[in-house]
Amino acid sequence: MPRQLPASMLQQDSDSRPYWEGLAQGELRIQRCSSCSKAVFYPRSICPHCFSDQLTWMVASGKGTIYTYTVAHQAFGAFAEDVPFVIALVELEEGVRMMTRIIGADRDTLAVGKGVHVTFESVGEDMTLPYFSLIEETRS
Ligand SMILES: [Zn+2]
Prior knowledge:
This protein has 140 residues and is mainly beta. The protein folds into 2 domains: 11-59, no CATH class; 61-140, CATH 2.40.50.840. Helices cover 6% and strands 39% of the residues. The protein is built from 1 helix and 8 strands, in the order αββββββββ. The protein has one helix spanning 17-24, and strands spanning 29-33, 39-40, 55-59, 63-72, 85-92, 97-102, 115-124, 127-134. The strands form 2 sheets. A 5-stranded antiparallel beta sheet has the order 6-5-4-7-8, covered by helices on one side. A 3-stranded antiparallel beta sheet has the order 2-1-3. β7 and β8 (127-134) form a beta hairpin. The longest helix is centred in the N-terminal third of the chain and has 8 residues, at 17-24. It is globular. Bound molecules: zinc ion.
């Protein structure tokens, strides 16, 4: 389980507030550009693909694949007691990538390209983070 993180680590602004509010409600929200239809993450006010300011919020499926990952054996501050933990770049079905953690998995079973789904972890007062778990594979 992750340690309780200090609330000062959570930086909300008008661009990211819908994202944090979604996490508190068990929704992984990302943006989509109304001009070019591409998904956008992290939260921002201008589309990085076409520079439109017509970004709207949507709820992501919460499913994706491991794009890359590493295991942290040293960490500082609030994270120090969590080691070792898995840091991953997950590519969501919608096409955006997000930095996150993979939890609940034997590290020997992790691999690039494996399917993961979001899980919402309370890490402090009014702070929920999206972590990911491996999608169970059916054995033949
Ligand atoms: Zn766009």
